[in-house]
Amino acid sequence: MLDKLKTELNYVGYSYYQKNNSLITKLGYGLRCKIEYNDNQVKISGYLKRWNFLTGLASLNLKWLMTYNLIWFFIFLFIQLYFKSGVIKLPYIPFIILAWFLVSNFYYYFKYFYFKSTLIYMVYNIKNK
């Protein structure tokens, strides 16, 4: 199954590497998709690698990305409200950061789910041949 999936991914032009019983596909900007094949089941998961501009030092699953970024937004908002009486007043900075986080998150979600639907279609075609 993995060999047939490799030929399909090569045909479409995705770059990947194999690690044990799984394929890890590079989708750009630190986004990775892990395809695990065990006991006639395919498990697909997406994650962002380390040193990404959204995750920093952590490697995060896409399920936790929005929560992680909202925590950082509230930290920036608290700092902004706490130092409100300072010399430099930048009231819109936390909301600009929130907008950046949301746009980036949606970009990664759309890119991952588009690839996942393409991959499901490939696996379906491989199984029915």
Describe the structure.
The chain crosses the membrane at residues 64-83, 90-110. This protein has 129 residues and is α+β, with helices and mostly antiparallel strands. It has one domain (2-127). Helices cover 52% and strands 23% of the residues. It has 3 helices and 5 strands. It has helices spanning 2-12, 62-82, 93-127; strands spanning 15-19, 22-28, 31-38, 41-48, 60-61. A 5-stranded antiparallel beta sheet has the order 1-2-3-4-5. A hairpin with a 2-residue loop joins strand 1 and strand 2. Helix 2 runs antiparallel to helix 3.
Feature tags:
129 residues, alpha+beta, 5-stranded antiparallel beta sheet, 3 helices, 5 strands, elongated, transmembrane helix
Task: Please specify the SSE layout and strand pairing.
Elements: H1 2-12, E1 15-19, E2 22-28, E3 31-38, E4 41-48, E5 60-61, H2 62-82, H3 93-127
Antiparallel strand pairs: 1-2, 2-3, 3-4, 4-5
Distance between the termini: 12 Å
Largest sheet: 5 strands, antiparallel
Order of helices and strands: HEEEEEHH
The share of residues in extended strands comes to 15-25%
Summarize the amount of helix as a percent range: 40-55%
Mean pLDDT: 87
Structural class: alpha+beta
Whole-number count of domains: 1
Number of strands: 5
Transmembrane segments: 64-83, 90-110
Keywords: Membrane, Transmembrane, Transmembrane helix
Q: What would a concise description of this structure say?
A:
The protein is of the alpha+beta class.
